[in-house]
Amino acid sequence: MQSADTPKKVFIKTWGCQMNVYDSTRMQDALESDGYSPTDNMEDADLVLLNTCHIREKAAEKVYSNLGRIRALKKARAETDRPMTIGVTGCVAQAEGKEILAREKSVDLVVGPQTYHRLPQIVARAKTHGPQVDTEYAVEDKFAHMPMATRKQVQARGVTAFLTVQEGCDKFCTFCVVPYTRGAEISRPHAMIMDEARALVDAGVREITLLGQNVNAWHGLGPNGREMRLGELLHDLAQVDGIRRLRYVTSHPKDMDDGLIEAHRDLDVLMPYLHLPVQAGSDRILKAMNRSHTAQEYVDIISRVRKMRPDIAISGDMIVGFPGETDEDFEATMDIVRATDYAQCYSFKYSPRPGTPGAEMTDQVDETVKTKRLARLQALLNEQQVAFNASCVGKTIEVLVEKPGKTSDQLIGRSPWLQSVVVPSHTGGIGDIVEVTVTSANPNSLIAQPAKRIVD
Ligand code: SAH
Ligand code: SF4
Ligand code: F3S
Fold this sequence. Notes:
Elements: E1 8-14, H1 18-32, E2 36-38, E3 47-52, H2 57-77, E4 85-89, H3 90-96, H4 99-103, E5 109-111, H5 119-129, E6 132-134, H6 151-156, E7 160-164, E8 166-167, H7 178-181, E9 186-187, H8 190-202, E10 207-211, E11 219-221, E12 227-229, H9 230-238, E13 245-249, H10 258-266, E14 273-275, H11 283-288, H12 295-308, E15 313-320, H13 327-340, E16 344-349, H14 357-360, H15 367-390, E17 396-404, E18 410-414, E19 420-424, E20 433-441, E21 445-454
Parallel strand pairs: 1-2, 1-3, 3-4, 4-5, 5-6, 7-10, 10-13, 14-15, 15-16, 19-21
Antiparallel strand pairs: 8-9, 11-12, 17-18, 17-20, 18-19, 20-21
Helix pairs in contact: 9-10, 13-15
This protein binds S-adenosyl-L-homocysteine, iron/sulfur cluster and FE3-S4 cluster.
């Protein structure tokens, strides 16, 4: 039996990009201040939230198959004193809105990414008034209305943290749903970002990753009232006492300005890693995708970045089988991958998304052709990743220790280039930056031994 003062529990399942991961933490924080404690066990939750992704067809379908299973759980709890409330949040919620309620009757609330700050009220209202849908683009700024994470909440999440600085997208690539699910591009104010960064570092965070759908489109007024861009924001964040590492993701080639490229040369705390998706290597396809740059312009940006920071690791995203993509276009994608030499790169088959121009194009590529192209592309990308990891063997590098390893004699940390690094547990403690020598490399991780001492 649950007494009235037993804390209610919330279970949040997250799909999609880092922004969704960040949003889940913020929703959890908001619900915690409303009396919910987090649980990892869905069956024991009073409130189940599915924070969803709409980027490709498979991602959206997963939501419905999960809801099917949760329906049974909810039914079993219906007659008890702990009924279950089910919510769909995130980009599927924004894109499908009340259609979700029509398709899956067990859902109590559908909340889009711009109204999370109203979540506690929406949950309460769903319990008394039945199913709720809130997919407005709220006029008020959700960030201004969400409580800052408490010290305890930050500490529970470890020594690395995400911080959203920009959200939404005005670029309208013809394959992409993000401008429709996340709305117009907005930048958070400089002061708010600095405050959140200071609070994170005060609570023990050592590495902050700035997030945005187009993070390098961030702009805002600095403390002196002057307009600034991401490179300058990184300079200011580098001054925060105690911050040891900065990263940012995801960038668009069009917004890769000189100030940002130079920050990679000038700031030691800015990690030598750049996620800069190009999507395709053929100018004809880039144009059809509305990417607004050529393959050569991308290659030129990469070489400028490498000139400023020779040890930088480049990462990216690629799509194969965009409508109209010929064998020749695909070979151009293979060429740009060879020219870039990625340390790591995601690759996807094009997935037509309802409401986007790409889905209306008549020259869709056959699924079997997409499958073959993806296999060839992934073989090449895999070769590059293995080679990059192998090139680290013998090097002495700094690793931020993040968490326990699979066995008690191991710890896991991150290299400056975002590789997972397994070190012996006596190397240092969680949160330490340790100097280690890489002894061997796997496709997805490095193995290292302490070089000498804890750096910090
Ligand atoms: N804002 C980022 C990426 C957002 S989505 C950018 O501009 O690069 C993350 C990745 O998903 C994209 O880079 C793209 O490679 C992939 N993606 C987006 N829509 C897709 C679709 N319809 N089919 C296949 N992959 C897609
Ligand atoms: Fe999507 Fe393009 Fe915007 Fe990235 S820049 S979020 S791929 S529309
Ligand atoms: Fe997916 Fe939305 Fe992120 S569609 S990739 S969760 S912005």
